[in-house]
């Protein structure tokens, strides 16, 4: 269920592989201990949010499927 939500979210991103890489680094960084607590976790979390906020441009998105009931 969570994997489906993440996959659907990543499909709308301009750089889904980059988002996955930064999110993976964040999860790895949370597990590995460090000298200055929480500094690198905060920076990686902000980086993940930044990459996650990069959406596809309207020109890059495929046209909507025929019969879709989207309200704009």
Low-confidence stretches: none
Helical fraction: 55-70%
According to DSSP, the number of beta strands is 0
Q: How much strand?
A: under 5%
Largest sheet composition = none
pLDDT averaged over residues: 75
Provide the gyration radius in Å: 16 Å
Number of helices: 3
Write the element-wise H/E pattern from the N-terminal end onward. HHH
First and last CA, distance: 27 Å
Q: Tell me the overall shape.
A: elongated
What class do helices, strands and sheet pairing give? mainly alpha
SSE order and pairing:
Blueprint lengths: L1 H10 L4 H16 L7 H14 L20
Helix pairs in contact: 2-3
Characterize the structure shown.
- The chain is mostly helical and 72 residues long.
- It has a domain at 11-54.
- The protein has three helices and no strands.
- Helix 2 (16-31) packs antiparallel against helix 3 (39-52).
- The chain starts with a helix and ends in a 20-residue tail after the last helix.
Question: Which short descriptors sum up this protein?
Answer:
single chain, 72 residues, elongated, mainly alpha
Question: Can you give me a brief rundown of this structure?
Answer:
The protein has helices at residues 2-11, 16-31, 39-52. The chain has 72 residues and is an all-alpha fold.
């Amino acid at each position: 269920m969570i994997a489906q939500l993440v996959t659907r979210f990543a499909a709308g991103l301009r750089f889904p592989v980059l988002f996955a890489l930064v999110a993976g680094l964040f999860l790895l960084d949370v597990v590995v201990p460090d000298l200055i607590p929480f500094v690198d976790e905060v920076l990686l979390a902000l980086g993940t949010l930044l990459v996650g906020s990069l959406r596809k441009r309207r020109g890059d998105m495929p046209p909507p499927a025929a019969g879709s009931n989207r309200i704009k």
